[in-house]
Amino acid sequence: MTEVTIKTETPLTVNAYINGEIVESEQHEPRENPAKPQETAGYWPLNSVDDAKRAIDAADEAFKSWKKTDLNERIERMQKAIDKVRENQNDLVKLLSEEHGKPLYDAEGEMTVSLMFMQYAVDNAERVYSETVNEDDRGKNVLRHEPIGVVSAISPWNYPLALSTEKIAPALLAGNTMVLKPSPMAPLTVTLVTQLIAEEFPAGVLNIVNGEAEIGIELTSNEKVRKIAFTGGTATGRHIMKSAADTIKNITLELGGNDPAIFLEDFDVNDEAAMRRIVISNFLTGGQICMIAKRMYVHESIYDEFVEKYMEAANKWLRIGDPTLEETTVGPVNNKQQLEFVQELIEDSRQNGYEIREVGKVADEDFFNNGYFMYPTVVLGADYDSRVVAEEQFGPVVPILKFRDDEHAIELANDSELGLTSSVWGEEEHAIEVSRHIEAGVTMVNTAAIQGLDIRYPFGGVKQSGIGREYGEEGMLEYVDSHVINIPKQKDLPHIPQ
Ligand code: NAD
User: Is any ligand 1 atom within 6 A of the Cβ of residue 163?
Assistant: First the structure.
């Protein structure tokens, strides 16, 4: 078995892992450090479509025996893999912060969520995946949860580790095999972690290839692949559905979000802890999270005071700068293209005459000017259908808008093709009642973003935010097909003439 050594020195070079072997690539690409783009965090392999095909073939071959293994064996192997990741977590967190740009506390948070859900999957595998046998006066039924086959997992750059491990753990525990492709914008940590996990399993059970869209296209169209677990943008999700159609693959799509946050008339604007929570939930990971408050609707009777208190909290809690410093709460944008897109939305707002306010503090202007940094930005007075409101910004800008009454707030919140998460803030029972009318997979009360994620419950979107769920028991069941064996007591139809 090949040992993975977590290297703390940079730049490091990672490689594909196919059929139990590290595969040295002929071509590597640099992953820049977005806080210091002149520095390279490490090199990732630009794998070929042939590499992807070999990985799929290996997974297909391994499936023949892996699907027959005892669940206890899978649980034991996955537990060892989790323990190994846990032992190496400090080095991995540093690398994640460096290649992504997220501050250390944020990278630690991602590692915590990754470990937490993998552990949840191990602890619940027996309950969720075991066969059950029921017998009553109508007959006997055996309900089995069969693995689906080769799973292609494709993940985005914003939470590269969590959004990959949440797929790996349930898929392998259920008896599937997998080929994973992470995003080129944060490929290093997830490649190392996948190798660490893969080493604990037979060759071919878990494979990783890196690359651009063409690798993703192979992984989503190859006929040997039976399931696609994808997290990324809605536009890519549309391509994937088409790719999957020819061979009717099982798909889970976790797509974009443009999450509304509603502040009811009875929200206490003087609640400083709540203000801190909302500011952090707007700009955590620099706003580059699918499940973050991206459209803020505030009742008109509290709007002015809300904006004033929000600005105070934002200027106090948003400290933009070097992700390796403990005091930093907001790092750079992950890549230049995303930075330019967010700036384009702000420019569009400026041209429309909306009020633009930059918030937060920058300790070191030279450092700031050198990286892909920008000030967190609040847009006031935007039209409900303006670009900054209607498009997923996926970066450090957020509009704050007014609403008249609960019905108006619900109408505005639901006026989107997306429906991932959402939040309602105010007196608890009132907020729960308004939440019932929001079109979303998750609605959080008096919190938002990752703070409101409970990995024991299903997570996912409605409308064009996706299909299927991750996390919780429902998320684990996405990796199995049910197979019912019926032994009815009455074996003939009663009305067939004798
Ligand atoms: P993206 O869709 O551009 O890329 C995601 C992954 O798909 C990458 O690995 C990419 O290389 C790959 N890919 C690109 N084209 C492909 C194709 N044609 N076929 C197959 N794979 C292809 O997304 P991104 O920019 O990396 O991530 C940001 C988006 O992800 C945002 O919209 C965000 O809301 C969404 N997201 C959703 C969730 C969720 O749980 N719903 C979580 C995180 C991020």
Answer: yes
* Long-range contact pairs involving 3-9 (C-beta distance under 8 Å, separation at least 24): 3/199, 4/192, 4/195, 4/196, 4/199, 6/88, 6/91, 6/92, 6/192, 6/196, 7/91, 8/91, 8/94
- The mean predicted confidence, pLDDT, of the chain is 96
Ligand 1 within 6 A of 36 CB?
Answer: no
User: Model's pTM, two decimal places?
Assistant: 0.97
Both tokens assigned to 352: 């429309």
Ligand 1 centroid–CA 231 distance in Å is 5
End-to-end CA distance of the chain: 65
β-bridge partners, 139: 136, 488
- How far, CA to CA in Å, does 195 sit from each of 15, 189, 248, 273? 9, 10, 30, 41
Residue 89 three-state SS: helix
CA of 129 to the centre of ligand 1 (A): 29
pLDDT digits (tens, 9 = 90+) for 202-259: 999 999 999 999 999 999 999 999 999 999 999 999 999 999 999 999 999 999 999 9
